[in-house]
């Protein structure tokens, strides 16, 4: 009888800031749905502090402070610690051991080709001074994914090269040492608007590091201000001018967040987003009206999350308790994988009776 393959999720975020609505549509919303679907045997959600330190080595305080912020964002968005383990990466030493062994299976040239790393090096102006740890973080990400035997990794588009790199490491490891590691699948957001949500400034990616984000924890007035000052179509000067919806972040956000019900509730002039877009393209629909609608949509979508956050903020020891329990469960899983890895590599000397016997025979021991 063949054993049913278990379904396991691993995802995570770097504690470099609070989570924003790009994280929400790119990954967090999906995680909550998958968690509540009951289809997964295990779910691990990782706060990647060690990875955050690869480009914040001089600023450990930022990373330390943001762990609790990210955890609060998770729980308020609906991650349930009874169903999902939330863990802190640096507290799982097995991950570092795996990274060390996997490093021998990856070439420098292959790492240099990773387009996300290339892009991030440019963004951070590292060029000639790339920290080794940053350069090799795709390998450590392969450890994170394989340590928990993840089958499914729900992430944004920028993570695609990381997943490909992980799959290569898995295949290489399994072909050299025998079938040991599980090959993961990426799960990208369904709608193209959510693959990489642009910033409020119209830049390609909403990012904590670029100051163009709307945060899950933003108060209503902050959200309103950010929405009302958003970049739109620069050629749409008069209400009567025809406008562009492609590359216009206000419409990309509406693609990501608005539902048909929102029109009935906040903007009954249009039955749905297509009708609103048609009017904008024809001319005669002003940016202010569209932005006001977007503000209503965002306020109603994120109000429950913000309210839950305010409740959770009242009991910080509980948050750390959740993190501790999740980390302990994760450590057990990672230890099991490391044990299998060392066995496959035949470096578990003290549990290897065949090896001891072989040496005894060689030296004529009785
Ligand atoms: P940093 O600037 O520190 O790298 P970040 O904003 O890129 O931060 P990460 O912690 O690197 O956030 O990414 C966490 C997850 O959120 C990943 O799955 C990533 O693909 C997804 N993600 C990040 N930004 C966006 C975005 N703008 N749109 C969709 N998904 C995103
Ligand atoms: Mg990132």
Q: CATH superfamily of the largest domain, called what?
A: HUPs
Strand residue percentage: 5-15%
The largest β sheet comes out as: 3 strands, parallel
Oligomer: single chain
Provide the CATH architecture of the largest domain: 3-Layer(aba) Sandwich
Helical segment count: 17
Task: Using the alpha-carbon principal axes, give the shape.
Answer: elongated
State Rg. 24 Å
Structural class: mainly alpha
Helix content: 40-55%
Strand elements, count: 5
Small molecules bound in the structure, each named once: adenosine-5'-triphosphate, magnesium ion
The pLDDT mean sits at 95
Give helix and strand order, one letter per element, not per position.
Answer: EHEHHEHHHHHEHEHHHHHHHH
Q: Identify the CATH class of the largest domain.
A: Alpha Beta
Task: Write down the domain tally.
Answer: 2
**Strand order, largest beta sheet:** 1-2-3
Q: Kindly, what is the distance between the CA atoms of the first and last residues, rounded to a whole number of angstroms?
A: 42 Å
CATH topology description of the largest domain: Rossmann fold
Question: Explain this structure to me?
Answer:
The structure is a single chain. With 366 residues, the chain is mainly α. It has two domains: 232 residues, 3-Layer(aba) Sandwich (Rossmann fold); 93 residues, Tyrosyl-Transfer RNA Synthetase (Orthogonal Bundle), CATH 1.10.240.10. Helix 4 crosses helix 8. The chain is elongated, with a radius of gyration of 24 Å. The structure holds adenosine-5'-triphosphate (ATP) and magnesium ion. Adenosine-5'-triphosphate binds next to helix 1.
